[in-house]
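Recap for those who missed Tuesday's class. We walked through two folding examples back to back. For each one, the amino acid string is listed first and its predicted structure tokens come directly after. Nothing is annotated here on purpose, so try labeling regions yourself before you check the end of the notes.
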Amino acid sequence: MAVGPEYRFKLATYDSYVRLDFEYQSRNSWLAPVQDVRTSQDPVVGLANGLPGPYTLSARHFTSVRAGVTVHDWMISPFIDNVFNSQTVSNYALGQVDPYNPAGSPTQQQNVYVIRPRTFGITASWRL
């Protein structure tokens, strides 16, 4: 689900706006293939070989705020991404073993990806 209300107004004589963006993704209500014993990706085999167990991603949310003003040919927009500094896991992947690596096969690792931390910034655009 995503909601992005925007309010446009005049600041002095300049066109301006404020915008709030909110995104929400609920927790999956079904098993991933690696969690479902009815598939060929049986997690019992992986766990028996010392691999980390799979898990279901939790619900997550992301909020950003932006404001802007157009002054002549310039659009200036300060923003804040990830307003609440949410650090929930957005994805994970199990690294692949490379049997052709001359240094030997590295241990398999699990990569976890989180949402980018709170970010402040300003965007400036010039139009001809």
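Example two. Treat it independently of the first, because the proteins are unrelated.
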Amino acid sequence: MSLILPSSLLKAIDQRKKEDAFRSLSLKNYIVDFYSNDYLGLAHNPQQREYAQALLSREPQYNGSTGSRLLSGNYPLIEKAEEQLAAFHQAPKGLIFNSGYDANVGIFSSIPLKGDVVLYDQYI
């Protein structure tokens, strides 16, 4: 497929290539992953995949991200996981967030009150 691009865009692409700043997506073989959220290697673990497939076949639910659990619905499987996490950590309740960023947003936008001081380190 041939694309017709404006000359200004072609110049910008050429400049990026000259500066070694042009990026393109590629498929890579599995290597040690120090660059993503998969630092435990679970995304490439065949036992993890088999366990997840078996679990999903037993637990009827939607697949994929459906948005906020508050707005689009909650799942018994997630509630069960939260209960297990709470029991493991000997806590009264557990709450799963989809990312560390969202956990921080959820916590820091709801728990501290006006005038509170929150201290945290670089690893939060």
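Answers for example two:
The first helix runs from residue 7 to 18.
Helices lie at 7-18, 46-58, 69-72, 76-88, 100-110.
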